[in-house]
Amino acid sequence: MSSPSPASQVIDAQTSGAPPKTVVLVAHGQPSAPNPPEHSLAQLAEQVASFLPGWQVRSATLAQPGRLEQVMQPGALVYPFFMAEGWFTGKVLPKRICHVDHRQLPPFGQDPNLPELAARLVRQARTAQGHRFEAASGSSSASGSGSDPSAPGCLLLAAHGSARGPKAAAATELFATALRPLLPELEVRTAYIEQAPYLADVASNMPSDGLCLPFFAQSGDHVKDDIPEALSSAKFDGTVLPALGTTPEVARLIAKAIQRA
Nearest Cα to 121, choosing from 203, 258, 240, 235? Predict the structure, then answer.
């Protein structure tokens, strides 16, 4: 069994008194290089713990051998840091921890507050591009050079998809449906790495001031390599935002989900 890095140690948010409630953040990780994602998830656990006094916040990736079994505790809440209720959250994760009494929460990507967070990030990026928004009407105008104020903006939601079944894409499409009313000034398109419509195909028809938001929890190889490669082949010259799960506001959002549970 691989030894966790120092940053992967249990984060204890207990103050004093009664034994702490325990939550375990679980992500997929990176089988080819398990330590960096394990480290970043442990950092996220530490941030979540800062919003949860009296809680013990632990973390594990499925890719780090034995780590999940090491941090599990009877009665713990399990928070899947995944975008969809798919193969890993529905099959792999429950099988790994079936011997321990626990309660599994809905995955990160299905949080009802996540579309609003994404909309704020996108609006911030559009503002940086020189676009102005009219809150009352939902319309926007562009002051940047070469922009057409009458043309709608475009957001590309880049997701993983799956060859195993429809749940991953369904979760992405559901998220896009919730996001569109929050960004009426933008056309929101979806595209995938592992299934049609493929990312390179959709990106090839994006406007020059388009935005791409990776619908991913962590910045693994898909975000660092596959998405840039697809966008490059499509000659996409818009703005690529950080993976949705890596934004600073995510820790508070996760803490609120745990408190609701």
Answer: 240
